[in-house]
Structure formats: C-alpha cells, structure tokens
C-alpha cells in the first residue's frame, strides 16, 4: 500500500512478474530438455530465440539484449556453434563484428521448442475467455514496450 492507502501497483506487478518468470522458465526448461531430445539450457534457448528474432544480429547486440557480459556469451556461442545450431560470420562492413544466424538445425530446434511452449501455454489459457486471452497478450505487449523504452531511456519519464 502507498502512504495514501492506494494499492502499490509496482510491487504487485513485480510479484506477479516474478511468479510468471519462474513458471515460464520451468516451461522453457522442459521444452529445452524434453521435447526436442537436445540438452539445451533455458539460457541457450533464449540466445537462439534472440538470434532468430533479430535476424543476423551481432554478438554484442544479443549479449546486450540478454544482459550478459561478452565473455560468458562468447562461450555459449562457441558451444551452440559446435553443436551445429548457429553460425558466425564476419560483417563485411566491419571485420571486428560477428553476425549470428541459426542453421537449419537451429531453426528446426526452435520450431520444436516453440510448439512445446505454445502447447504448454494453451492449457492454462483455455480457462480464459477469448477476450481475456486477448487482454493478456495485449497487456504483455504493452508492458514489454514500456520496459524497452525504460531500458533505452532510463532517465526519461514514461508517457
């Protein structure tokens, strides 16, 4: 509660996000280890997801997006590359920059993980009405957008 007796939305949201994050991480871990026959950690799954989402990003872009230091990130990339899930190519514009992309195996693995995750989310969503389902999706999109703005402009007030 705030000093004026109104609910503290920030704390309530943080509590709900912690629960959601823990539950989605458990679902992702199950998807990364059971559905595909691959031993992919949730972190490696996030790396592959970001590479797929950003379409040939640099190593630094993905590491920054995930909040990882480049040394730790580089070790993960070497592991995933050795497993044939991604490739690194030097940027023609700047030879110091490595661009990442998923291989056919990496894309197929991400498709299997995505199907597993979608099926895992579909069960609890089935208890909601179509309107509630749409509200959840739109609310998460708005929250992600606001968090992205806050991350990119930490001193700018949110509108």
UniProtKB/TrEMBL annotation:
Pfam families: MarR_2. SMART domains: HTH_MARR. Gene3D superfamilies: Winged helix-like DNA-binding domain superfamily/Winged helix DNA-binding domain. Residues 10-145 form the HTH marR-type domain. InterPro entries: HTH_MarR-typ, MarR/SlyA-like, WH-like_DNA-bd_sf, WH_DNA-bd_sf. This is MarR family transcriptional regulator.
């Amino acid at each position: 509660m705030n000093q004026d007796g109104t609910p503290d939305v920030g704390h309530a949201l943080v509590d709900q996000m912690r629960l959601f994050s823990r539950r989605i991480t458990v679902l992702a871990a199950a998807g990364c280890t059971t559905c595909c026959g691959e031993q992919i950690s949730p972190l490696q799954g996030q790396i592959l997801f970001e590479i797929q989402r950003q379409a040939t990003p640099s190593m630094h872009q993905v590491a920054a997006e995930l909040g990882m230091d480049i040394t730790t990130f580089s070790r993960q990339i070497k592991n995933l590359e050795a497993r044939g899930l991604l490739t690194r190519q030097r940027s023609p514009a700047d030879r110091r920059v490595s661009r990442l992309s998923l291989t056919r195996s990496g894309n197929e693995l991400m498709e299997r993980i995505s199907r597993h995750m979608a099926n895992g989310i579909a069960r609890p969503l089935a208890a909601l009405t179509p309107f509630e389902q749409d509200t959840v999706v739109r609310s998460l999109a708005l929250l992600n957008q606001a968090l992205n703005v806050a991350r990119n402009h930490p001193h700018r007030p949110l509108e």
